[in-house]
């Protein structure tokens, strides 16, 4: 039976439309860091190389190699952490050119450096990308976090952040990460009406 994160990990990926507190364990990711407007072509190219690597691992059995511990699964969704440059923080209105981000796609626990190296080799041969060598494979832990689902335009996210800020204040919590927040994209923005976009918003927090 295929492992589907939407069903098996609802607490992480399908939160309610109001803030709640969770603990996120260690997770493995392909990651790519950058700066600039997410509407630019470069951002799309970076997303593309992450998916190429993720699917290279997902499809290995069909290429004749079955990694130790492999199981059939649905590729995890795109995630990203967001912050602003020092210059960007000086503006009263968001300047997307000053955004600092790390985009990432989670990998199953069976994925090792050996498997990652094979994925890189595969993508380098079949779907070369100028950003491939900038991708890293890392294990990170969000730990104690406040999250909620945001439905609608990305530009309307501040309304949800206000709810999350109030929740943190009411529950004696503060943001601890060196990034402002994380987003998990449950919808394909190219195919989904803007008003129906579903995005998980997450703060990494600790008690004051």
Key phrases:
7 strands, 32% strand, alpha+beta, Multidrug-efflux Transporter 1 Regulator Bmrr, Chain A, GyrI-like small molecule binding domain-containing protein, GyrI-like_CCH_Lin2189-like, 208 residues, globular, GyrI-like, Reg_factor_effector_dom_sf
The description of the largest β-sheet is: 6 strands, antiparallel, barrel
Assign a percent range to the helix content: 25-40%
Classification by helices and strands: alpha+beta
The percentage of residues in β strands lies in 25-35%
Low-confidence spans: none
What name goes with the CATH superfamily?
Answer: Regulatory factor, effector binding domain
Q: Rg, please?
A: 18 Å
Total number of domains:
1
- Give, in spatial order, the strands making up the sheet with the most strands: 1-3-2-6-7-4
CATH architectural designation: Alpha-Beta Barrel
Shape: globular
Q: How many helices in DSSP terms?
A: 5
SSE ordering: HHEHEEHEHEEE
Terminal CA distance reads 43 Å
What is the CATH topology descriptor?
Answer: Multidrug-efflux Transporter 1 Regulator Bmrr, Chain A
InterPro entries: GyrI-like, GyrI-like_CCH_Lin2189-like, Reg_factor_effector_dom_sf
Domain GyrI-like small molecule binding: 18-199
Protein name: GyrI-like small molecule binding domain-containing protein
């Amino acid at each position: 039976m295929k492992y589907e994160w939407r069903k098996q990990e609802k607490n992480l990926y399908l939160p309610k439309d109001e803030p709640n507190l969770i603990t996120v364990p260690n997770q493995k990711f392909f990651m790519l860091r950058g700066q600039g407007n997410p509407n630019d072509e470069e951002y799309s190219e970076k997303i593309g190389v992450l998916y190429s690597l993720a699917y290279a691992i997902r499809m290995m059995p069909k290429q004749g190699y079955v990694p130790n511990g492999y199981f059939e699964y649905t590729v995890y969704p795109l995630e990203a952490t967001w912050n602003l440059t020092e210059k960007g923080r000086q503006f009263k209105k968001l300047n997307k050119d000053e955004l600092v981000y790390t985009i990432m796609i989670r990998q199953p626990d069976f994925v090792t450096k050996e498997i990652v190296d094979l994925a890189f080799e595969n993508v380098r041969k079949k779907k070369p990308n100028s950003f491939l060598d900038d991708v890293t494979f890392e294990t990170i832990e969000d730990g104690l976090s406040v999250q909620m689902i945001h439905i609608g335009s990305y530009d309307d996210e501040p309304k949800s952040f206000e709810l999350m800020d109030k929740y943190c204040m009411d529950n004696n919590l503060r943001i601890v990460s060196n990034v402002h927040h994380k987003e998990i994209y449950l919808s394909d923005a190219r195919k989904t009406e803007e008003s129906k976009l579903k995005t998980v918003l997450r703060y990494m927090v600790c008690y004051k």
